[in-house]
Specification:
341 residues, 3-stranded antiparallel β-sheet, globular
Length: 341
């Protein structure tokens, strides 16, 4: 079990751990995750690999049209079939047939594994007996639909997929990699050596899973779905008023490390005040989740806050003391549920 799940072994947390921390050698797991979510919507209890080939290949093809590199492998027979389909050289029927044979070689077995072991509450079982190739959907997967957080899952998967594939396709040295924040558009973006900007994905969609769908301060449920009454806001843990002070010490207030999601009412009450120091530990834990999840948010956080865990602790403590020196009072929400990251 990952550190992410120690304080929260819920089904939602297990699902998010697979998306955020599972192996990222290829993007097949994201296509598979989106296909599973479609099955939840339809309340499907079992599906053949042949039937699953249609949504799975659809998801891969949609992403290939935007970013051609979908893994570390230099060549892939399955991805070449998908590329030829995009060119109009392979029919839908042939695409589905080839996907059935080539697309699920590793992903079905690997998807539910973290750190070399299955998650405690698996979401499906593989049944390849007597020539059948199907997966049996467990109640654990169907129960996700009952959760408040289910509404966010598809956007969270898509955001993680976009982050991983964009970094691969830009081929940026990890030491130079910095995911940047566009405050006006609430987007993450990257720039290459020629200062060409590539928009990646919504900040809210990207960050929500790491906060387990909770307000950073009050631990209330939050949503990333546009129009929702629980729609969250992006907040700077250290406010803009401290930007000049921080920049003297090399800190980037718009850095990923300093961005949190908050309930809109809580966030507006916070204004530009400095959060109580107990939230600094929460910020550290949340940032460590980024680092554990690997490429590309991991490299960005490390580059912005320190190469080792001790240096990152020292960095945050220094920034907090600087902010405290310029603030009149600290702040904490009037309402706060029990919980931790």
């Amino acid at each position: 079990m990952t550190q992410f799940q120690i304080n929260d072994p819920s089904l939602e947390s297990q699902w998010r751990a697979l998306i955020l921390f599972g192996k990222n050698s290829a993007t097949y797991k994201f296509a598979f995750a989106k296909s599973l979510l479609e099955l939840v919507n339809k309340e499907t209890t079992k599906i053949s690999i042949a039937e699953l080939s249609q949504p799975f290949s659809k998801n891969i093809v949609e992403h290939l049209k935007v970013n051609d590199k979908q893994g570390n492998s230099k060549s892939s027979s399955f991805l070449n079939i998908c590329r030829n389909h995009i060119k109009g050289e392979v029919s839908d029927t042939e695409l589905w047939s080839k996907t059935e044979k080539l697309g699920f070689v590793n992903v079905v077995d690997a998807f539910q594994n973290l750190n070399g072991a299955q998650i405690p509450d698996i979401f499906y079982e593989k049944n390849y007996k007597s020539g059948n190739k199907e997966i049996i959907i467990k109640d654990n997967l169907l129960k996700l639909k009952e959760s408040f957080h289910y509404q966010n899952f598809n956007q969270e998967v898509e955001a993680r997929w976009n982050l991983v594939e964009t970094a691969w396709n830009l081929n940026i040295n990890p030491k130079l990699l910095e995911v940047k924040y566009d405050e006006d558009k609430s987007l993450f973006f990257l720039e290459n050596d020629f200062m060409r900007r590539t928009d990646i994905t919504s900040v809210k969609d990207s960050l929500n899973g790491y906060q387990k769908g909770k307000c950073f301060y009050s631990f209330q449920d939050i949503s990333v779905v546009s129009g929702s009454s629980n729609l969250c806001e992006v907040d700077h843990f250290f406010p803009h008023v401290n930007k000049t002070i921080h920049n003297e010490f090399g800190a980037n207030i718009n850095g990923v490390w300093n961005l949190v999601l908050a309930n809109k009412e809580i966030n507006r009450n916070k204004s530009a005040r400095i959060p109580d120091k107990k939230f600094l530990h929460r910020l550290f834990n949340r940032n460590e989740f980024y680092i554990q999840s690997k490429h590309p948010l991991a490299e960005t956080i490390v580059n912005q806050t320190g190469k080792t865990k001790q240096k990152r602790i020292e960095f945050l403590n220094k920034q907090y003391q600087l902010a405290l020196n310029s603030a009149i009072i600290t702040w904490k929400p009037e309402f706060e549920l029990n919980g931790n990251f």
